[in-house]
């Protein structure tokens, strides 16, 4: 019998976040204990609402805690031009009556970590503001985190300025705090996730997967992360894939730092040759088996749809 991995998901839905959440919530090897939200793709009020309506649609009861509405030190720049004004436009979700927890996401993380006997994985698929605050306010909680699997950073070009990926660009100071925390980190970066696209064949297969497939197919029509012709980029889904099927990836241990100012602010600088550091602080993904990932994603969305009808 496989032991389920206890999981906290920190997120900012977002269309690819929504796919990642649907798979994680229904995966046989994952036990999602808490979902925390942060501003990023859209503001935190909307990312919280998106998480709640997705949970209601998926018929899952997982606590949601609203987190930070802005980065630690700089002004928020969202990605509504990619995900739409609401973050998940294109599908009319049924009305729901679920509410977020009455306390901040950082407190919810602390409570969840304290109450769990074994260390918890944090799946970080947004700016790292909440996690940086958790480690700053409650450094004793670091030992309760077995690892952070994050979608963020890049080893090559960025999608904001020329060098930075969006999640680390949104709050570079938070990213630097997390990379310096001493907690094991797996970085699934933009250079890898940009290759993990859903082609038209997979999109049509997903359309046929009942209510879940129809919902995501509708959202995909409004997603600007790639296109239906060139392929839709499933950035955040790659972090879930690494968590449950790491053999899809090639990785390397290295040391990563974050640029905090200048034209490359938010850039993740990886010392891949370990010329300037003696210690590693991150396992970075170098490549992904794209055909196997595409097959895995469709299969897992199909299982998510099946569970909706159990």
Automatic annotation (TrEMBL):
InterPro entries: I/U_nuclsd_hydro_CS, Inosine/uridine_hydrolase_dom, IUNH, Ribo_hydro-like. One of its GO terms (biological process) is purine nucleoside catabolic process. It holds the Pfam family IU_nuc_hydro. NCBIfam families: PRK10768.1 (NF008036). The keyword Hydrolase applies. Keywords: Glycosidase, Hydrolase, Membrane, Transmembrane, Transmembrane helix. GO terms for cellular component: cytosol. The chain crosses the membrane at residues 120-138. This is Ribonucleoside hydrolase RihC. It comes from the Bacteria. Gene3D superfamilies: Ribonucleoside hydrolase-like. The lineage of its organism: Bacteria, Bacillati, Bacillota, Bacilli, Lactobacillales. One of its GO terms (molecular function) is purine nucleosidase activity. Residues 7-294 form the Inosine/uridine-preferring nucleoside hydrolase domain.
């Amino acid at each position: 019998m496989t032991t389920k991995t206890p999981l906290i998901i920190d997120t900012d839905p977002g269309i690819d976040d929504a796919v990642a959440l649907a798979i994680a919530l229904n995966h046989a090897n994952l036990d999602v204990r808490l979902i925390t939200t942060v501003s990023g793709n859209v503001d935190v009020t909307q990312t919280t609402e998106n998480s709640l309506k997705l949970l209601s649609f998926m018929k899952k009861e997982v606590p949601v805690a609203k987190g930070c509405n802005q980065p630690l030190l700089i002004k928020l720049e969202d990605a509504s031009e990619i995900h739409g004004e609401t973050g998940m436009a294109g599908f009319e979700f049924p009305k729901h009556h679920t509410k977020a927890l009455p306390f901040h996401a950082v407190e919810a993380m602390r409570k969840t970590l304290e109450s769990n006997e074994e260390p918890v994985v944090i799946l970080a698929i947004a700016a790292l503001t909440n996690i940086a605050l958790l480690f700053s306010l409650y450094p004793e909680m670091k030992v309760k985190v077995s690892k952070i699997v994050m979608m963020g950073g890049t080893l090559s070009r960025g999608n904001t300025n020329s060098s930075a990926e969006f999640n680390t660009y949104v709050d570079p100071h938070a990213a630097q705090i997390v990379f310096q925390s001493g907690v094991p980190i797996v970085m699934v970066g933009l250079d890898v996730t940009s290759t993990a696209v859903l082609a038209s064949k997979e999109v049509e297969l997903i359309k046929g997967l009942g209510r879940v497939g129809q919902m995501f197919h509708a959202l995909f029509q409004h997603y600007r992360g790639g296109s239906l012709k060139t392929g839709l980029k499933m950035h955040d889904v790659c972090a879930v894939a690494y968590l449950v099927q790491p053999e899809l990836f090639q990785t390397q241990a290295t040391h990563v730092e974050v640029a905090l100012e200048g034209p490359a602010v938010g850039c993740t600088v990886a010392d891949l040759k370990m010329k300037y550091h003696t210690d590693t602080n991150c396992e970075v993904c170098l490549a992904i088996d794209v055909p196997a990932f595409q097959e895995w994603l469709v299969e897992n969305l199909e299982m998510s749809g099946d569970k909706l009808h159990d």
